[in-house]
Amino acid sequence: MVVCGLACWRCRWLLPLLLGLAIIMGIIALAGRGWLESESEPYVQQASLWESCTRTPDALNWKCESLMDYGWGRAAAATYLVGFVILVICFALAVIAFSIEILRFNFVRGIGGLLFVVAAFQIIGLVIYPVKFTEDILLMGDNMFSWAYGFGWASTVVVIGCAFFFCCLPNWEDEVLGNIKPTYYYSSPERAPYLN
Q1: So where does this one cross the membrane (predicted)?
Q2: Which in 29, 84, 99, 136 has the greatest CB count within 10 A?
Q3: In sequence order, what DSSP letters do the residues of 98-165 get, joined into one string?
Q4: Contact (Cβ atoms closer than 8 angstroms) between residue 55 and residue 44
């Protein structure tokens, strides 16, 4: 039977796997058109990180305007994109770090620090977008920040969790590398009543 605790060498691929999941969610957020959508029919508004689209209730085609014409649109896209690029770099570094037999724990802690930088950039982009969007763009009907925006936040939450684990992993260096011998507890049958 294989027992896999929080910091065991067999489970070292869980953290890079979680970073890969954060990258997938970041790609969905960057490419998705569901940052803002109409809440109910008629669907007259939708927006992505890059553009805002509207249409009249009886029209079939969307009329889109680029959010890159606004300073805040460029800032939101740039900060989220910079965070995403650093996240991809952290993923590559994590795969390299966990592939070698002699794990460099200071290297792992550095990845955790970079992940906090990723989270900061992504949070800045995710906060700028809704605040300035609702101030500068005329909203039609009832709208909500939707699934692609939610994937952006989900990616950020996973990154924050991984950052804590990467920073704390060196505290369990001996357990991860298997340098600690297991401790066995044995009590004789005549001492068993005193253990209660």
Answers
A1: 12-32, 77-98, 110-131, 151-172
A2: 29
A3: HHSSS--HHHHHHHHHHHHHHHHHHHHHHHHHHHHHHHHS---SSEEE-HHHHHHHHHHHHHHHHHHH
A4: yes
Residues 148/34, Cβ–Cβ less than 8 Å? yes
The reply to whether 193 falls in a domain is no
> Structural domain of residue 90, as residue ranges?
16-175
Q: At what angle do helices 71-99 and 147-168 cross, to 10 degrees?
A: 40
- 69-120: pLDDT as tens digits: 899 899 999 999 999 999 999 999 988 887 776 666 667 888 999 999 999 9
Distance of CA 92 to the CA centre of its chain: 15
Residue 134 CB partners (closer than 8 Å, separation 6+):
none
Whether residue 20 is predicted with pLDDT greater than 50 in this model: the reply is yes
Residue 192, pLDDT > 60, answer no
Cis preceding linkage at 42, omega within 30: yes
Residue 8's identity, in one-letter code, is C
Question: H or E element: which one contains 86?
Answer: helix 71-99
Structural domain count, the chain: 1
* Partner residues linked to 51 by β-bridges: 66
Q: Which two tokens stand for residue 130?
A: 């809704």
Strand partners, 36: 47, 145
